[in-house]
Each structure stands twice: as C-alpha cells, then as structure tokens.
C-alpha cells in the first residue's frame, strides 16, 4: 500500500537553502532512487509546488549533521571525532552507530558490528523525528548496513551526503572489507555530494591502482567522479612525509589542490573523520561545497598543529584535541578572591615620570608580592599596549599572578589576559561577559549598592569600590569614604577590593573595616609613583599582613 511520506528534499547538488518539507500525495509511492527524488525535486520547484512550513519565529534553526559511523573507544576517530568536530564548528551532531571498536593509540583490538536492523532502527529514530541538514558517513562495516543506509536516505532525503569511505585504520586494521566496495560503487557513491577517500581507499575504489603522486591523485579523483558522486576529495595525508599535505578536489569540471605544510606529529589519528565531519558541518551551516572543503582543511591543520605535542596513550598514533578553542580556559587557574589582597594598578604617566616600561613596572610589583595586576594604560597606542600586555602576561603566568586589562576588552581578548576591569561608563559587564566567555575575570567599579547589585547580576567576579580617599590618579572621582565603602561591601554579593588614595598610612584602617568580603586594596601611586616599586610593594604587603593579624 502506498503511504504518506513527509520528506525533506533538496537540489541535486547542494545549495544552501532552508529545508523544504514536502507532503507527497498518497499516490506517490516512496521514491525508489536518489536520481528519482532529485528529478522530482527539480520538477516540483518548476511547478512551484512547495509550500513553506509555518515558521515559529521564536524557534532558532540549529544546523544539524547526522553521522553514521563506528565508535572509537580511544576517542580520536569515528563517532567521537565527528561529535567533537561538529561541536567545535558550532553544529549539532546526532549519531547512528554502525560498529563498536576496541581501539587505542596502539591499534584496533576488536570490532563488533551493530546488527543491520538495529542500524535501521537508529536511522529511523533520527531521520523521522529530527531531520538533519547533512548526513556524514564513516565506518560502514557490511554491505547490509550500506544498503540499509541508502534505503533510509531515499525515504528521508537530506540536503547533502558526505561519504568518508573508511576502510582501513591508519594502523592497518580493516574496518570495512572489500565486500562493501560494490555497494559503495553501485549505491552509496552515486548519492554522495562529496566522497573523501585517502590514498588507500581511492586505490581500493578503483580496483587497486597504485596512487603515489599528486598526478595520480588527480586521475583517481576523475575516475571516482565517474562512479557518480558530485564532488571528490582525494586526501594526501599518506603521501610521503617529505611532501606537503596536499588534497585534490574535483567537482566534475575543475581540479583544486588544497595544500598545507605537513605537521610533524604522531597525533594524526582521526584526521580523515574530522575533515569529513567539518565539511558536513560547514555544509549544514549553508556553505557552498568548495568553501566547506577549504574551511575543513584549515580546521584540520589548526587542530593538528595545536595537538602536535599532546601526549595521550603509549602507542605510535595519538589522537588530536578538537576543542582547541576552549583550551586556554583549562590552563588558567580559577579566580580566587584572595588574589585581590594586594592589587597593583599601573599608570602610564607615572611610568613615564620614573622612566620605566610597563613590563618593568609589572615585574617589580610582582617581585614585591603583588597578588594581581591591572594594566591601566590610558595613553598608550593600541599596538604597543597589546605587545606590553602579552609580555606582562608571560611574566604573570610564570608567577601565577592574574593579569587584568583596564577598559580594553579588545586588548584583553587579543592578549588572552586573565580578564578586565571596567567602569560604570565602559562596556556593560554583561556584554563584556558575553564577549569574554565564562572563565575570564571581570571586575567592575562600583560606588553604590545599586552598582554592586547590577555587577552581580551582570556576571562580574569582583567589584572595586572607591575612591575611599581623595586621589589625583583619577580626575573628577567622587570620594565615598570608609562609610561609603562599608555600605557597598555590606550590600555586595561579590568580593570587594578598595581603591582610591590608599597607601602605607591608611591601608590598615581600610582593612580593619571588618567586612568579610573586603579582600584587599588596589593601589597606584603608593607603588608606582615611587623610586623603587619592589620595596614599596614589599612594605605595603607587610602592612596588609599586619592588619589581618590584628583583625583576627
Ligand atoms: N601531518 C599532517 N599535516 C598536515 N595535514 C595533514 C597531516 N596528516 C593528514 N593531514 C590532512 O588531514 C586530512 C585527512 O587526511 P588523511 O589522508 O590523513 O585521512 P585518513 O587517512 O582518512 O585519516 P584517518 O586516520 O582518520 O583515517 C587531509 O586534509 C590531510 O591533508
Ligand atoms: C571507528 C573508526 N572510524 C574511522 C576510523 C578511521 O580513522 C577509525 N580508526 N575508527
Ligand atoms: Mg580515513
């Protein structure tokens, strides 16, 4: 009996278009071949038969890749690489698992194939309920699984199909035997928008022709294109180590070479899965094929380069670390309110007056015992500020002292400083938080309980409150006094550092206010408008330590 199929159809070559659901009439039996559905799609386009689905403006479309692949217990290739690559590229990834492998950096110890009907069930679950933009395939270990997949794709067509014809692991273990070659050639490849064989796989698809040079890769790309996929990318990761990593792309008309210098690293496990998933992710976002491949190649190169020295496992082929963007957050130790104890704020006028560079000033303050540094450089050009921030950061990291940038979120981002300190008239703290991400330190200057309340709501980590005493460092700055400071501290959920005219003579009075969230003092002139910054910092540290002893 013919049945209703609610389908998502696409053009015969990938075009970045929203998915167009089509309700086929009961008379239209489920489409038999991919060619037939592509024909029907084009015809329907001509006849203007598509109805746009009612759109709910409150819903956000999420680009979505479904990967149909094997699990790699080592986490570097297969399903695990696909999920990580899609996540890194900002794309949702659902999974149909075709095999479970026991694998590590030494090799493949075992393969357990998922029964064909259970692969079919997983496919149905995903495709019928949450149609992906793009399907990407990896390890398809049996002819039955290839056929099941092709059948599902005919029933539930998608915008693009990316086929990574996984056959042999880099360690030489067979992941899908030669028996699948016929079903690849006859059924899967003709449906593919792109197929991405490595040298061995390209050779196998062509009956074993030897492939050793870039000229060979071109001929292979053309011959594989004749099998039916719309685009072919022959990957050159396995070219001799002396050559660049060159991939050859052929779209049926033109050849393109994607070249990157070869990264000398043992951590290349999963490069192929990562490349294909990234192509799929970029297509899902709406890229054209050529730009998707370009971005994917660049991404793999960046991840390889980032991961070249990581050590996971004792074998000779390690995995990559896909989430490089998140890495800097891991290296930084979390903010500790006690860091606010002796908070040194640099000042360009004072540095000029005493003939010091920003870096020298920071070095001296750290040597004297400053527990956090803020670069407050109002008169320095952006380029010079950035260079100084990077140099200061190196010193701060060595000593475990956080480095904050005053006002300049751009400089904080570009230098990868630990955070920023912003005033009431700078960028709102919640916007700074959105730009800087969850891990960077954000401090906000607050004079009132309302400011303090807002800083908490906006996601700040601490507040700076003052001026406690009159100061020349900041013009037109209202003095709030010890009482004002206490009022702010009492109403603040965040730790507080006191600022404004604080030095050796009055630091104890401030610290003796006796409010638990007052964690320290921020000083400018008391350290930097002096001949020896290190000596002054040491002295102030002693005074502060003394005040805590008295308080306890
Ligand atoms: N050492 C390297 N330096 C730079 N790029 C590389 C290196 N090794 C592989 N690549 C690139 O990584 C991508 C994947 O190619 P490769 O030939 O390694 O695929 P593969 O053999 O299928 O990988 P897998 O190990 O996942 O099966 C290609 O773009 C290739 O050029
Ligand atoms: C599960 C799986 N898929 C693909 C590859 C190819 O890298 C692998 N090693 N393991
Ligand atoms: Mg591969």
TrEMBL record:
Molecular function as annotated in GO: ATP binding; hydroxymethylpyrimidine kinase activity; metal ion binding; phosphomethylpyrimidine kinase activity; thiamine-phosphate diphosphorylase activity
Catalysed reactions listed for this entry: 2-[(2R,5Z)-2-carboxy-4-methylthiazol-5(2H)-ylidene]ethyl phosphate + 4-amino-2-methyl-5-(diphosphooxymethyl)pyrimidine + 2 H(+) = thiamine phosphate + CO2 + diphosphate; 4-methyl-5-(2-phosphooxyethyl)-thiazole + 4-amino-2-methyl-5-(diphosphooxymethyl)pyrimidine + H(+) = thiamine phosphate + diphosphate; 4-amino-5-hydroxymethyl-2-methylpyrimidine + ATP = 4-amino-2-methyl-5-(phosphooxymethyl)pyrimidine + ADP + H(+); 2-(2-carboxy-4-methylthiazol-5-yl)ethyl phosphate + 4-amino-2-methyl-5-(diphosphooxymethyl)pyrimidine + 2 H(+) = thiamine phosphate + CO2 + diphosphate
Record bears the keyword Kinase: yes
Required cofactor names: Mg(2+)
Keywords carried by this UniProt record: ATP-binding, Chloroplast, Kinase, Magnesium, Metal-binding, Multifunctional enzyme, Nucleotide-binding, Plastid, Thiamine biosynthesis, Transferase, Transit peptide
Any one GO BP annotation for this protein: thiamine diphosphate biosynthetic process
Gene Ontology CC: one annotated term: chloroplast
Domain Thiamine phosphate synthase/TenI: residue ranges: 342-527
Record-annotated Pyridoxamine kinase/Phosphomethylpyrimidine kinase domain positions: 72-315
Alphabetized Pfam families for the sequence: Phos_pyr_kin, TMP-TENI
Pathway: Cofactor biosynthesis; thiamine diphosphate biosynthesis; 4-amino-2-methyl-5-diphosphomethylpyrimidine from 5-amino-1-(5-phospho-D-ribosyl)imidazole: step 2/3; Cofactor biosynthesis; thiamine diphosphate biosynthesis; thiamine phosphate from 4-amino-2-methyl-5-diphosphomethylpyrimidine and 4-methyl-5-(2-phosphoethyl)-thiazole: step 1/1
Places the protein is found: Plastid, Chloroplast
InterPro entries associated with the record: Aldolase_TIM (IPR013785), HMP/HMP-P_kinase_dom (IPR004399), PM/HMP-P_kinase-1 (IPR013749), Ribokinase-like (IPR029056), ThiamineP_synth_sf (IPR036206), ThiamineP_synth_TenI (IPR022998), TMP_synthase (IPR034291)
Primary localization: plastid
Family stated for the protein in its record: Belongs to the thiamine-phosphate synthase family.
Function description: Essential for thiamine biosynthesis. Bifunctional enzyme that catalyzes the phosphorylation of hydroxymethylpyrimidine phosphate (HMP-P) to HMP-PP and condenses 4-methyl-5-(beta-hydroxyethyl)thiazole monophosphate (THZ-P) and 2-methyl-4-amino-5-hydroxymethyl pyrimidine pyrophosphate (HMP-PP) to form thiamine monophosphate (TMP).
NCBIfam families listed in its UniProt record: HMP-P_kinase, thiE
Listed PANTHER family: HYDROXYMETHYLPYRIMIDINE_PHOSPHOMETHYLPYRIMIDINE KINASE THI20-RELATED, PHOSPHOMETHYLPYRIMIDINE KINASE
Protein name: Phosphomethylpyrimidine kinase
Gene name of this polypeptide: LOC102601050
